[in-house]
């Protein structure tokens, strides 16, 4: 009886251990791991491409192991697939930690601290609030890093998830820095910023606010006070005299519906009046209906204007250099790669060099205590 009393729990533990071990190498679980791991690699590719191209070889090693994990999965060798993916995550944890601490946490802190004095000096309540939100997100980002770093070394996908959340919050902290930078500017600088934004929109085929671009105050007010009939007459005359070499943007108004053109004319007048009176928050509501990706384009215009010198007589080369450098961070905040058009990302440039590993050769198996991993399907690998 005493033997039976202790035998039953031992059998239960043994069965549970075997079941857990088999579940670890289950086809569905390996498939989930592969998809999750590829998402981790794709996210890391943007970070490495934008800020750490010297770590491209490390990314190649990570992807090489992931690739062989996928090959093993297709061959039905689920244990080997698990080993390869798990080993890939070991390298990924180290690279994610480096990227988060050396680039995102450090850069967001430098940006916030570097502009805090000017933003506070501006005495703009909204700018100060945005700055506060930036510091808050940066603090939470660091807490997520600490949480991931302090977690069990074997919970690799958990660590990576924490680091990804930390990077996203650090990005948002930088976005708040740029928004507060715009908000803290004076009325004349903001007018230049809007002019820059609409000029870029016009170059890309937009027509909203086109007639106000690059006009001095006198011409701006005269344009604002025109009647719709005067505007229509001038537009039709300019189009009738246009030749075949005109671009599509200049002829776009000819194909607008009359009701749409009249509505745009009224909205342009209201926006012009709001901007002239420095009521930018009122103008923003209307502009958003005509300008896609408004926040991105407004911040980009802000950085371009400040790079050229926000105020008359301001031509410090260091200031220009700093603002130009922020454009890379701004693009990264919106997952845009800082590479020339047609160039490849870090992952794309090395993906073609991967090789299939021969599992029959000695030394090809990964031996990082995989056999003793405790798997929790809800929080771990």
Tell me what you see in this structure.
The protein is mainly alpha-helical and 381 residues long. The chain has two domains: 15-182 and 341-353, no CATH class; 186-239 and 252-309, no CATH class. It contains 15 helices and no strands. Helix 2 (27-51) packs antiparallel against helix 3. It starts with a helix and ends in a 31-residue tail after the last helix.
Quote the average pLDDT. Answer: 83
Count of the separate structural domains: 2
Q: What characteristic shape results from the CA principal axes? A: elongated
What share of residues is helical?
over 70%
* Rg over CA atoms: 29 Å
Distance between the termini: 40 Å
Q: What is the N-to-C order of secondary-structure elements (H for helix, E for strand)?
A: HHHHHHHHHHHHHHH
Q: Treating each run of at least 4 consecutive H or I residues as one helix, how many helices?
A: 15
SS elements, strand count: 0
For the largest beta-sheet, the strand count, sense and barrel status come to: none
Q: Strand pairing plus helix content: what structural class?
A: mainly alpha
Q: Approximately what portion of the residues adopt beta-strand conformation?
A: under 5%
Low-confidence stretches: 14-22, 242-254, 364-381
